[in-house]
Amino acid sequence: MAKQQQQVYFVFMKFDPDYERLRADRSKEGSARLDAYLSHKHDKLLAKLLQPDSYRKRSSLAIVDGFPVEITEDQASVLRSAKEVRVVEKNQELA
């Protein structure tokens, strides 16, 4: 069986009151706390649902509580079924 090709998907999370609270702090320290919180939260979700070394998270996006990740379509389906996840969409290249 052929191995599925990985593509970039964007994962957007459901409402999180901690994210909203941290996002409201516009100070430099608040921004650093938000970045650390989201990075940990997103890494924890991926580690819980996907096999180690089977994906590559590119970054965490503080403005939308989401992240781009290189995964297969099967892995995208797994993430779509997670209760914490609102939307998983494949990156669309613009011509």
- Order of adjacent strands in the largest pleated sheet: 2-3-1-4
Uncertain stretches of 5 or more adjacent residues? none
The dominant shape is globular
- What is the total tally of β strands? 4
Structural class designation: alpha+beta
Total helices: the number is 3
How would you state the average pLDDT, rounded?
95
Evaluate the radius of gyration: 14 Å
Major sheet characteristics: 4 strands, antiparallel
Portion of residues in helices?
40-55%
Distance between the termini: 32 Å
Seen as an oligomer or otherwise, the chain set is: single chain
N-to-C order of helices and strands: EHHEEHE
The proportion of residues in beta strands is 15-25%
Protein name: Inhibitor I9 domain-containing protein
